[in-house]
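Hey team,

Sharing the DUF3305 domain-containing protein run so nobody has to redo it. Sequence (170 residues) first:
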Amino acid sequence: MEVAKVGVVMQRTPLSNRWQPFQWRPVEIVRDIALPEGGVRRLRDDPTDARWLFSGFEVQLFTAESEGYYLNISSPVPCWFVMWRMEEMDGSEMCAVQSVTLSYNEAARLMDGGERVDTIPASNDIVALLASFVEKHYRPEPKTKRRKPSFEGGEEVSKMVVPEGGSCER
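Structure output:
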């Protein structure tokens, strides 16, 4: 099920830091505008606020990710997750958006893999779309009680105990 083709507006602001001269962050998700030449367009370029549009991201909802969508809409601020990296472009270092998702679990997997993922709050219509999808497709796994062995004796404890001088094999 396709949600939309979207673009991401990334903002670059200067920092007073000799190791990192700029801060990059996503500031807006927009309906996609087809762009030639790799899908990147400079929107603004002044010393205090530069912005680029990265386009061409098709966001789809998958039933296998329904738990991730549920976790997203259950959070205090449901959001888009934007994965981006720093890359060399035209002789200078610049951010490059790699993917966009609405799944909390997918974003967590990306971060576990060492990727940079930032968030942008989702609009009410996207949250409503996700809620409808979750209602239709998400079925939480039933919780099962696991009986903990008693340390006050009994058959389960005797199975865990190895007699002194005895072997662990049974």
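The chain is about 20% helix and 40% strand.

Ping me if you want the raw files.
A.
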